[in-house]
Predict the structure.
Amino acid sequence: MSNKLTKNRKKIIEKISKKKYSLEEATVLIKEINFVKFDASVDICVHLGVDVRVPNQIVRGTVQLPHGIGKKVYVLALVTKDKELEVKEAGADYVGLHYIEKIKSGWKNHIDIIIAMPSIMNQLGSIAKILGPKGLMPNPKMDTVSIDPAKSIKEIKSGKIFFKTDRYGIIHASIGRVSFFHQHLLDNIKVFMKKIVHNKPSSSKGTYIKSIYLSTTMSNSIPLDSKIFVNK
């Protein structure tokens, strides 16, 4: 097993040169350096020239990827009784305020996103310390506090993703799978990067996009030429 991994790693290193790749080159190469047996995630890593210690330089938001990310997103909907059927029909995997007590009691089922109605936010104080560190606390800035939870859930299920700079000014996101058509990966990356550029803080000075890398599960990273995007 270790010899095979070493051989595959050598093939990857031989394929990736020290240059920065165009989007077209990178989305072809990303498939060629994938050696895992499953349908690996294609991830993008964008290092921004922002100071995240300054609140108005934190870059965050949502973007609707035209072809989704190719995996099931598990949604918990914390809504009032009259909205339960509506959010179930919209695709919510878990529904109801009784999940607040379940989370308090150590409920471990996998959740990717929690959508909550504004009227129940005051009930989440008791689980904020559980949800916060996991990045699951509903937040109006991330569109996860919604007056129309069914609409929000439909958008998430059809490819809407959330992004936010980490403490190093880096945004990590999944933008598809290795099995995606080449053009679909291109479309997703272009839409994602357009949104990142659009969300540039007005107080950010100098180079905004410092570097961009594409990678798959367990593969080396491929550097992209950031000049192909607006870099003001």
In short: Residues 75-147 form a domain with the Rossmann fold fold (CATH 3.40.50.790). The chain has a mean pLDDT of 89. The chain has two domains: 20-69+160-228, 75-147.
